[in-house]
Amino acid sequence: MTNPTATPARLLSADSHPFITAPDLAAVRILVVGDVMLDRYWFGDVSRISPEAPVPIVRIEKREERLGGAANVARNAAALGARCGLLGVVGADEAGEQVAQLLAESRIESFLQRDAAISTIIKLRVIGRQQQLLRIDFEDAPTDTVLRDKLTQFNALLPDYDVVILSDYNKGSLVNVAHMIEAGRAAGKIVMVDPKGDDFSRYAGATVLTPNKSEFRRIVGSWASEEQLTAKAQALRAELRLDALLLTRSEEGMSLYTDSEVLHMHADAREVFDVSGAGDTVIATMAAMLGAGMPMADAIMTANRAGGIVVGKLGTATVTREELFGV
To answer: Model-level pTM?
Structure first.
């Protein structure tokens, strides 16, 4: 096994690859599987404090609904022009119908499983004066019967797609993730995982794992230097038999660890307005670029640029092909 501390490292910047050609994403087929949510936004004006408690009173003036969780990953992939399908679980309720409608509007192939025993996961955000004041979550875990049906459908859909994204928000939809990774890799697919939780062993064998800094620290502990971070990242990558581990590091950018090298990418310097869904944008963009045959270094640079664009937008947002490549 490669000595992790001896793995060559290099720093990527926009100047390293100034002319990345826009790939043909219409031919890329991506299947997103995971925890499907509906993001609701209530926007209003705040002009006074409640006499009942020291909290602001928000007079709601506008409401918006957007795809959230794994559905936001699919939305990001579709916004780039890739052909995208979504496999997940929603309730047999009004919110589930709304998710289905939004998927159709985004040109995402819907393979939603309806579970009459649960309610669709909803994240309700109250926004006043462009600031999030409150978030209310409604969520239930899917039933075992629906999860078994979902795994069967995953196996049936697999031959039709090139790249699989497993978007885990730790809400119960990916209890069969190990089987999905094994089936995807056996079929020769690129399998990318956005992980959650305290146990990453279930993600063993994936092509790329994309934890953020806090998720990674929970698994491997803290580090005191870049060399120690590299050693921990490479040890985890080898233990889980990953082709690559992509660590997203907020303002520090992102780092990719493979058996042959370490790539560091500085954060794209932009004004940060809202980090909601930035990780969804990064994994969707990287999946689309790898599916189109883009080299890993260029795919990372493009995903980093996409993440920099989306944090300048409010809420769970997307990046278009035109924003990324100017075409």
So the answer is: 0.89
